[in-house]
Amino acid sequence: MLAATTRLTHPALTWRRNALELWGERGIDSRGLFYEQLDFNGRGDADSRRRMRVQARQLYVFARAESRGEAGAAEVVDRGFPAFQRFCAHQEAGWIHLLEADGSPADILRDTYDHAFVLFALAALARTASHGAQARALAQSTLGWLDEVLAHEAGGFHEGHPASLPRRSNPHMHLLEAMLAWYRVEGDRQFLDRANIIGGLFEKHFFDPAHDTLGEHFNDDWSVVAPPLGDSVEPGHHFEWCWLLVRLAEAGGADYREQAARLYRFALAHGLDAHGFAVDEIDRDGRPRRMSRRLWPQTELIKAHVAMGERDAAETSFRALADTYLATATPGLWIDQFDAAGHGVSPVVPASTLYHIDVAIDELTAGR
Ligand SMILES: O=P(O)(O)OC[C@H]1O[C@@H](O)[C@@H](O)[C@@H](O)[C@@H]1O
What we know:
The chain is mainly alpha-helical. It has one domain: Glycosyltransferase (Alpha/alpha barrel), CATH 1.50.10. The chain has helices at 11-26, 52-68, 73-88, 112-126, 132-150, 169-186, 189-206, 235-250, 257-270, 295-307, 311-325, 352-365, and strands spanning 37-38, 50-51, 98-99, 105-107, 110-111, 160-161, 167-168, 207-208, 213-214, 217-218, 232-233, 281-283, 288-290, 293-294, 337-338, 349-350. The strands form seven sheets. A three-stranded antiparallel sheet has the order 2-3-4. Strands 11-12-13 form a three-stranded antiparallel sheet. Helix 6 (169-186) runs parallel beside helix 8 (235-250). The protein is globular. The protein binds 6-O-phosphono-beta-D-mannopyranose. 6-O-phosphono-beta-D-mannopyranose (M6D) is lined by residues 170, 174, 240, 296, 350, 352.
């Protein structure tokens, strides 16, 4: 049974403990592989294929919980980390994209976005007592392989190996997140340098100063692809980049806080619905496209509020999130998606909801 050993002063911490208890008990199978999803009664789906990125995200969450001293988390990590290495490692190098339910490889694509989450999880594992050395060694080989095989001659990284188009800003955003996490753990300048390089890509290619928007999809040479992909704006990504760019500057890296504020303001002005929830997609003129609203853009909204120093707004957004997205049947479950009319449309709870909520709660409660 997972139980908090710290005092729970913010309601968000109680909700996180509920989530950790549930996912720690029900969200991992006898082999140590995490389920993709639970149903609203908290039952895992043994027949689903398993995406590597979900395994990495769950490992991140439980490694962080172990470092905070939450009872039971270390056991989950002790089961999950060896299984991750056994099932997800590619036989040559890197990490495969997808597993069959029986654990055999279903897609051996090595995807850059996925690898960002491997590095992010390894940074959290590096802080644990028993897995630090192994996590450091794996991060070193993963980064080396990324540089060797996935680096693109026009800067940044290919989408994956084998390479595909369009290229996206999104994997680079999560690599920035991972490099900042490693810099926090090691204090080693190479990680800040890597984070700065991604910041440079943001400034040069991803940020559109004519619109104050973030580009999502690009050709090989970083030119923006044609609409509709080329002018798609995801408010959630505006908030997520805003948060990370502020953290980059605070870590002593390059300072893109002005652009971060412009992304934030654009998404606040055009990317929220009448209830203040972040919608899934608009265009670069601020016109609505997909007015559904997943959970993750809401967690990014909270992180961006915190990064911008808007504490009251962060608390208000978190309360609205809890009022609407917390599932009532089983404590610890969060609804993943509502349609434009406000009807819950996710029939199950994806495991990644735990990661999205966990990072937002860390930000909301830091220093409180
Ligand atoms: O669909 P899941 O796996 O929950 O991910 C949800 C979202 O996470 C965010 O951090 C971004 O990377 C998004 O591009 C992604 O769509």
